[in-house]
Amino acid sequence: MTLKATTSLPDARAFLGDAPVMAKRRISETGSASDTRQLRVAIVHYWLVSMRGGEKVVEELCRMFPQADIFTLVCNRDRISDFLKTRNIRTSFLQKIPGAQRHYTKMLPLMPFALEQFDLQDYDLVLSSESGPAKGIITRADALHVCYCHSPMRYIWDQFHVYRHGLPWVGRAMMSITAPMLRAWDVTTSSRVDVFVANSDYVASRIRRFYDRESIVIHPPVATDDFAVGKGKGEFYLYAGQLTTYKRPDIAVRACTEAGRKLVVIGEGDQLAYLKSIAGPTVQFLGHQPFNVLRDHLSRCRALLFPGTEDFGILPVEAMASGRPVLAFDAGGARETVSSPQVGFRFAQQTTEALLETMAAFEEVEDDIDPHAIRAHSLKFSSAVFRDRLSSLIEQQLTNHGDRSAEVFGRRPG
């Protein structure tokens, strides 16, 4: 509704007072999962250019709130799921810049401005999915903003120097200039969030460190039903994922080369040529593979090697859903998923030597490990558990938020 020029000032004030009260009524009347369908819901995701862990979370949010609209800075429809293609997706002005779908990361300084152009005044509930900039959207004053944080932006915080060193000199100069401003914006916009939800205890600690905010930990959804326990003893070790420096695939390649163990590497990235140069004859590179090939290799591997530090790490849970153990570096989300010797081993130092020692310890007890017990452990991180926990949290927050809104609007002068 738009106010006409002939509307008197008292009438205009009455309208502006009623609009949030109507939204408040929708929130206060929400008391069950079915009632949340009455709400206007916006899902804000940094960019939709692939189908990784963050995008799987967006899919689950859409299943929880089928009426939701998606807002994202850039979208490549050729690389998202058929399910997401059916949603109402709204992009920013960055989408219109030539090459944006491939070079979106180079537009980081423009992203805060693009994000704040999204008009979310019609929405009662805003769910931001944060890893790149997403939480900085501007909501209506009485709307509930829940941020599911996969990670505070790594490239401006704890991974700043790693990303910066990988750029040409022009990029390094630009990043040095813009990063302080982006950090200030990132911290400031954390106050726009009503409730932070972290995908792991590790991320919760980083939210506390960078934003000085507490959060509730709800692990991300893993489609455990898509995997099944493999038959027999595994045939090879497996590394899967992006071949980038911070994920340390070189540790897996060197360890299996030195030990003469078979290793299959699935993935692509800027480290591929280097990894091939240090690999021995027991290491096989398959490049990027579709999901069915990855699933098959997860069910047939001896163990998944996971030498990097991840905020959560969905792949280890997928391996465990296939009944296969995980040998992971003792950091990040692996401390929460690879939580006992019954499901895998963690090595304390991020070195080839430490992984070799862990492989030796694993092989001594390999025949005694129960694949079905490993799969049972993975079910703690299933999509159903994620939906149940997040739904309960949002319903509770909607009730609390509605009560607070009622108090605020009840104190308004007539």
Automatic annotation (TrEMBL):
Coiled coil: none annotated. Keywords: Transferase. Residues 52-225 form the Glycosyltransferase subfamily 4-like N-terminal domain. It comes from the Bacteria. It holds the Pfam family Glycos_transf_1. One of its GO terms (molecular function) is glycosyltransferase activity. Residues 231-366 form the Glycosyl transferase family domain. InterPro entries: Glyco_trans_1, Glyco_trans_4-like_N, Glycosyltransferase_grp1. PANTHER family: SULFOQUINOVOSYL TRANSFERASE SQD2. This is Glycosyltransferase family 4 protein. It comes from Rhizobium sophorae. The lineage of its organism: Bacteria, Pseudomonadati, Pseudomonadota, Alphaproteobacteria, Hyphomicrobiales.
